[in-house]
Each structure stands twice: as C-alpha cells, then as structure tokens.
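In practice, a research group might receive sequence data for several interacting partners and want a quick structural hypothesis before committing to experiments. The following worked case mirrors that situation: the sequences arrive first, and a predicted assembly follows.
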Amino acid sequence: MSAGPKSKELFERACRVMPAGVNSPVRAFASVGGEPLFYASASGARFTDADGRDFIDYVGSWGPLILGHAHPDVVEAVSRTAAKGLTYGAPCAEEVELAELVTNAVPHLEMVRFVSSGTEAVMSAVRLARGITGRDAVIKFSGCYHGHADHLLVSAGSGLATFGTPSSAGVPSSFAAHTIVLPLNDEQGFRSVMAERGQDIAAVIIEGVPANAGLLIQPPEFLRLLREQCSHHGAMLIMDEVITGFRIGPEGAAGLYDIEPDLAIYGKVIGGGMPVGAYGGRRAAMEQLAPLGPVYQAGTLSGNPVAMAAGAATLGNLLADNGAAYQRLEALGDRFQKGILAAFAGAGLAWSVVRQGSILWLSLQEGEAPRTYECIAPEAADRYARLHTALLDRGIYLAPSAYEVMFVSLAHTEDDIDQTIAAFHEALGAIA
Ligand code: PMP
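A structural hypothesis for the assembly, expressed as tokens:
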C-alpha cells in the first residue's frame, strides 16, 4: 500500500527538515520501497495512520511495548508522575522503585545504573569493563547490534584474528582497531582468538538471542563457551539484553541459557516506551562507577521520574501473576509461528519462521534457518520487500526491513493473530 495523501504530505515536509525525513534510518522504508506511513495514534495492538487507516502493529516501537500501545496503567503512571514534575536532576523515589523491581527480578543484577537509551547503556558498560580490567580490546559478533557508539559500529576485518574496520563514516579506524569482530556460533574461531589475545580482551559482548540481523538463535554451548573463556582469561562477559530483557522472560537471555554475565545491558521494555536504558551487574563491578569508583558516567535526564514510572508500571504489570504474562506471550507467539508456517507451506514455500517467545523472524530462504549473519541469503530481502508491501495493503504493519523481527505484545489477541495469518495467505498468493 502506498502511503496515503496525509502521510505523503508529512513526508515531503519531513524530508525538507530531517535527513530522509526520519530520526532513525530504518524508518525511511528505503529497503522495502515506498514511503513511510506516519502514525497519528495507537492503542493496544493497533495504530491509526495520518490518513485514518488502521493497522495491526508488529513493530511495537521496536520492542518496548510489550503491553501494547498506550496501556492504561502506563499512561496513568506517566500522567500522574508528570503532573509532579518532569525531571529533577536529583534523586527521586521512582528510580529506586524501578531499580528494586529490576534487581529483584534478575539475581545477577545487584545494582543498576539508569541512562536514557540502549546505546548509552552499552557505551557505559564497555567503559566500565575497560576500567575494571585495564584493557582496551572488545570482541563483538557480526550481526549483533549494540547501538551506535563509535567502537561498536565496526565490521569484521579481513582475517579472523584481525581487528575490525569502521562500518560507518565518521568512526576513526583507531577506535575500530580496539574491536574484534567474529562470526556467531564459531567455537573454534572464538577459542583461537582468545588463545592468542585473551589477555588483551576487556570484554566480550553479545546479544544473548541476537535479534538485529534476523533472529540468530545460538546453541547454548556457544554461550557457555563465551562464559567459560571470559572467566579463564579475565575478560568480562557483557550480555546485551536490550531486546531480550523482560521480553523473553523475567531473566532474559541470561535466564534462558542459565549463564551469568559480568555486566548486563537493558533498554526497551524496562522503559515501557519512555527513553530508558540501564546497565548492571554485581556490586563489586558497579561500585567502580563514579562517584564511588574511577569510571565516569553521568546523565542530565538519567532516572527521570516520568520514564522511571513508565518502566515500573510496565514491569509491575508484566511480573504480576507469577509469569502468566510470559505464558500468554508464548502461546500467542506459537499460534502466530504455526499459522505463518502453514501459510508458507500452503504457498509451496519451504521458508521458516524463527521464534523465541514473542519475538519472531521471517527467514525467507530454504534450508535450515541461519545461525550466523553470513548465512542469510541476499535474495531474502527482495522477497521480504514484496511481502511487506502486500501485508501493508491488508492492514498488517511489519518492520520495514528484512533483518528486523516482529514483536507480539500482550495486547494482541488470538483474533488479531488469526486475522494476520489470513492476510499472510492472501499476500503470499498475491506476490506468487
Ligand atoms: N542493543 C540492542 C540489542 C538493540 O537492539 C538496540 C536497539 N535496537 C540497542 C542496543 C541500542 O538501543 P537504543 O536504540 O535505545 O540506543
């Protein structure tokens, strides 16, 4: 579906005053074609665009909205708190409450520090790891995204044990030189780099369930190897739970794999739709932060009461009733996965749907679903673009990029899922 006249008009205005009309690149629809829809309002699992058309939304602001759009508890908490002041730049009860909720839910988080985005949390956690270990190098995995801090916008160098090269203009190669990029799920490659350079490595950072280049679910042994090797070489294991934290279960990917990272990073769900990131770990590590320790990090709006209240209302709701929310998300995710698989099969397509709880990814290629970025077939992006447009025509809004996942929320109903599956059947027929 092309954008309606009001979206088009807004986009024209936007393009005059903001690069590509957007404040975050993937929103521009560049990889699926057409022009972006402008959201006018949203509630539960749906949004209305500027032209008054309704869509079922599987982007959910890229993950935070696990309760759905404008959940009444969250809106009430934000309004009530905002009426008392938007930000103080001084301690407030709301930040203590959210910190208690987070640390009570996750055993290896004895302390947290709140910031305002996932990027900021990653940047700060890496600085902390470097400060604690007195080392500079960091290992990341290709296909994992950890925000846009300079030293993590890095692609693999030419050889396995070489240091990375910048993947964005404006990143000095001297910064990228501190980052080693390795393929996921390559035990041998990881072992040999650690054997050679283990004593230089400050941190190994990974998304426990990599969800930024498709959904590249790793075998548990690979994560266990990272844990074991980090401990052996005195490097810190940083688990980026910006997507997975409180999304795939109260203990995120660490809980799923029963692995304790040295530092963990949060964002998205813990802010319930407000700008919140956090990083945390054991007391001894976190006490290295200023003003207790030598590692500096600060923020004007960090821990502001409105954002904290949104996070607390979200987690409070999610963690009530002994995990019922996660059972519901699992059931909805399962129904969705099975329905799409049946639609693929009906269309004679041997494609797959990768899923971890309420996170799903359409892997539009034959054969086993990829576990590494390098295994994603390039032609899948074209297929996705056509499917994306055909679904949009039928009122279903997926992320405008083949590499992005779908998020099911607690606001989605069985009817929403079934309606979406029916749209998949039609869309696949239309693009055949
Ligand atoms: N880490 C991961 C795993 C992410 O998915 C993201 C954002 N999608 C980030 C870090 C960066 O978070 P933010 O966009 O809030 O800076």
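Before designing any experiment, note the following. The domain at 72-318 is CATH 3.40.640.10 (Aspartate Aminotransferase; domain 2). The pocket of 4'-deoxy-4'-aminopyridoxal-5'-phosphate is lined by residues 62, 117-119, 122, 145-147, 207, 212, 240, 242-243, 267, 277 (CB under 6 Å).
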